[in-house]
From TrEMBL:
Listed Polar residues bias regions: 62-79
Transmembrane spans: 7-25
Signal peptide interval: none
Keyword annotations: Glycosyltransferase, Membrane, Transferase, Transmembrane, Transmembrane helix
UniProt superkingdom: Eukaryota
CC terms in the record's Gene Ontology section: Golgi apparatus; membrane
Protein name per its UniProtKB record: Nucleotide-diphospho-sugar transferase
GO MF annotations in UniProt: alpha-1,2-mannosyltransferase activity
Protein's organism: Cercophora scortea
Family in the record: Belongs to the glycosyltransferase 15 family.
Compositionally biased intervals (Low complexity): 37-57
Region of interest (Disordered), ranges: 36-92
Gene Ontology biological process terms, A to Z: cell wall mannoprotein biosynthetic process; protein N-linked glycosylation; protein O-linked glycosylation
Length: 435
C-alpha cells in the first residue's frame, strides 16, 4: 500500500511537471492548438493566418505573433528573423556557390523588409488567386512569411477570406476600396465616355466596353498604394489571379530591391495595344513640360521612345507582376504625374492601362539603375511567359517552365530594348530564342 501511494505521488508529480512544461511551451510559441477559423491569429509562422478588415486594426498585434519555427515541439527555438537585424550578418545567397543557397526549408533567418504582397481581386476570383498564392508560397514566401493585402471595390466574403488566409504564411489583411477611388471623377463627361465604350465595343477592343476594367486601371495607376492598409509598408509585390511562378526564389527579392536601391521591377515587357492609348504620350509630354523638376536626368527615355521623346514606341513593363517601392509611388513626382494624366481623362475617354502608366513613370522619374529586371523570377500570366534563358540557371533554380515559351527575346517583347538601353549583356543563348 505504502509503495502504491508513493507511486501515485510520483505520477502526480510527473503529471504536474508535464503540464508545467506544456504550459511553458505553449506560451513560448512552437506548439499552438489549431485555431478553428481564419479569424484567429496563430503564433506559428508556417501556418499563421490572421486577417483584419478595413483599415483600422491592421498590424498592431504583429509583435505578438512573430513567426517561429515549427519543427520541434520540445524547446523554444526562435529563428532570428524580422526587422532590425544587421543585413551584413545575413548575406543573401544569390548564386549556387554562395553558402546557404540550398537552405530552402524552414523559416529563413535574417532581416525582413517592410513589405507586403498585394492583390486586387473580386470574390469570384478566389480559386484563381488561390492558385497564385500557393505558387508564391511554395516557391518563396513559406520561408519568409511576408504579409498579404487584399483589396476589393466590394466587401470580401467569408469564403474568400477563409481560403486566402489559409494559404498565406504571413498575415492577411482585407481592405475595401472607397468609392472615390473606384468611380468617375467629376471632371469626366459621362456621355463622351459612354460613346467611347460603344465605339470600342464595335471595334472589338479587348475590355473596350468595360467600365469596371477602367476603374481597375485607374485604381492600379493612382490609388492602390494610398489605401490605408498599404500605408503600413514600404515595398509591394503585386500578384494577380492565375499567375504561375516556375522557379525557386532563393533570396528575398524585397531585400534585393531595398539593398540595391531599386524602385521598380519587371519580368515581362511588350508593346501596348495602340488603340487603348492614342493620346497618352501627348499627355505625358504635357506633364514633362509642366514638371521638368520631376524628370530624372539619367532616365530610361530610350526604352520608351526611339526618337528622343518625340513619339512613344509603346514599350512598357507588364504590371501584373511588379515589385516596387511604395515610397516612390507616394512621392510628389509620381503623385503629380498621375494627377496630370488623370485630369486629361484618358482612363475613361480611351482605355489607358496601369502598365504603360507605371512604366512611363518609372522610365522618366527614376534613374535607369533604379529599375530592375528579375531574370531569376520565372513567371506566367496569360498569354506570356518569362522563363530564364540558359539551361544551368533553370536547373539551379529547379524551374518547371518550358524554355521554348520564353517571351523575352521574341519580336513583340521590349526586353531586348531594355537590355540595350541599359548596356546590359544578354544571357548566353538568347539568339536561339528570338522566334
Ligand atoms: N475588385 C475587383 N478587382 C478587379 C476587377 N476587375 C479586375 N480586377 C482585378 O484587377 C486585376 C487585373 O484584372 P484582370 O482581369 O486580370 O486584367 P488583365 O490582367 O488585363 O486581363 P486578363 O488577361 O483577364 O488577366 C486582377 O487582379 C483582377 O482580379 C473588379 O471589377 N473588381
Ligand atoms: C513600414 O513602412 C511604413 C510606411 O513607410 C511606416 O509607417 C512603418 O512605420 C514602417 N514599419 C516598420 C516596422 O518599419
Ligand atoms: C547622370 O549620370 C552621369 C554620368 O554617370 C553623372 O555624372 C551625373 O551626376 C548623373 N546625374 C544625376 C542627376 O544623377
Ligand atoms: Mg490579369
Amino acid at each position: 500500500m505504502a509503495a502504491g501511494s508513493a507511486r501515485y505521488v510520483r505520477y502526480i508529480l510527473v503529471g504536474f511537471f508535464v503540464l508545467a512544461a506544456l504550459y511553458y511551451i505553449s506560451n513560448s510559441g512552437p506548439i499552438i492548438p489549431p485555431s478553428p477559423s481564419y479569424e484567429s491569429s496563430r503564433g506559428n509562422g508556417q501556418s499563421s493566418s490572421h486577417h483584419t478588415t478595413g483599415s483600422t486594426s491592421e498590424g498592431k498585434d504583429s509583435s505578438a505573433s512573430a513567426p517561429k519555427e515549427n519543427t520541434t515541439p520540445v524547446k523554444s527555438t526562435k529563428p532570428n528573423f524580422g526587422p532590425g537585424l544587421d543585413p551584413k550578418e545575413y548575406p543573401m545567397a544569390m548564386t549556387p556557390s554562395d553558402p546557404a543557397w540550398n537552405e530552402l526549408s524552414g523559416i529563413k533567418e535574417g532581416p525582413r523588409v517592410n513589405a507586403t504582397f498585394v492583390t486586387l481581386a473580386r470574390n469570384s476570383d478566389v480559386w484563381e488567386i488561390a492558385r497564385s498564392i500557393r505558387q508564391v508560397e511554395d516557391r518563396f514566401n513559406r520561408r519568409y512569411n511576408y504579409d498579404w493585402v487584399f483589396l476589393n471595390d466590394k466587401p470580401f466574403d467569408d469564403t474568400f477570406k477563409k481560403v486566402t488566409s489559409s494559404l498565406v504564411s504571413g498575415k492577411t489583411h482585407y481592405g475595401e476600396i472607397p468609392k472615390e477611388h473606384w468611380s468617375f471623377p467629376p471632371h469626366i463627361d459621362q456621355d463622351k465616355a459612354q460613346k467611347v465604350r460603344e465605339d470600342m465595343a464595335q471595334r472589338k477592343i479587348i475590355y473596350g466596353d468595360s467600365v469596371s476594367y477602367r476603374h481597375m486601371c485607374r485604381f492600379e495607376s493612382g490609388f492602390f498604394f494610398r489605401q490605408p492598409l498599404m500605408l503600413n509598408y514600404d515595398y509591394y509585390w503585386r500578384v494577380e489571379p492565375s499567375v504561375e511562378l516556375f522557379c525557386d526564389v532563393h533570396y528575398d527579392p524585397f531585400r534585393y530591391m531595398h539593398e540595391n536601391n531599386k524602385k521598380y521591377s519587371f519580368v515581362l515587357s511588350l508593346y501596348e495595344y495602340v488603340e487603348t492609348i492614342p493620346t497618352l504620350w501627348e499627355s505625358v509630354r504635357k506633364f514633362m513640360k509642366n514638371h521638368p523638376e520631376h524628370i530624372e536626368e539619367n532616365n530610361s527615355m530610350g526604352f520608351l521612345s526611339d526618337d528622343g521623346g518625340e513619339t512613344y514606341n509603346h514599350c512598357h513593363f507588364w504590371s501584373n507582376f511588379e515589385i516596387g517601392s511604395l515610397k516612390w509611388l507616394r512621392s510628389q513626382a509620381y503623385t503629380d504625374f498621375f494627377e496630370s494624366l488623370d485630369k486629361d481623362g484618358g482612363f475613361f475617354y480611351e482605355r489607358w492601362g496601369d502598365a504603360p502608366v507605371h512604366s512611363i513613370a518609372a522610365a522618366l522619374l527614376l534613374k535607369k539603375e533604379e529599375i530592375h529586371f528579375f531574370n531569376d523570377i520565372a513567371y506566367y500570366h496569360v498569354p506570356f511567359t518569362h522563363c530564364p534563358t540558359g539551361d544551368k540557371i533553370r536547373a539551379d533554380l529547379k524551374c518547371h517552365c518550358n524554355p521554348k515559351d520564353n517571351f523575352d527575346w521574341k519580336g513583340y517583347s521590349c526586353t531586348s530594348k531594355y537590355f540595350d538601353v541599359n548596356g546590359l549583356a544578354k544571357p548566353e543563348g538568347w539568339e536561339n530564342q528570338t522566334d
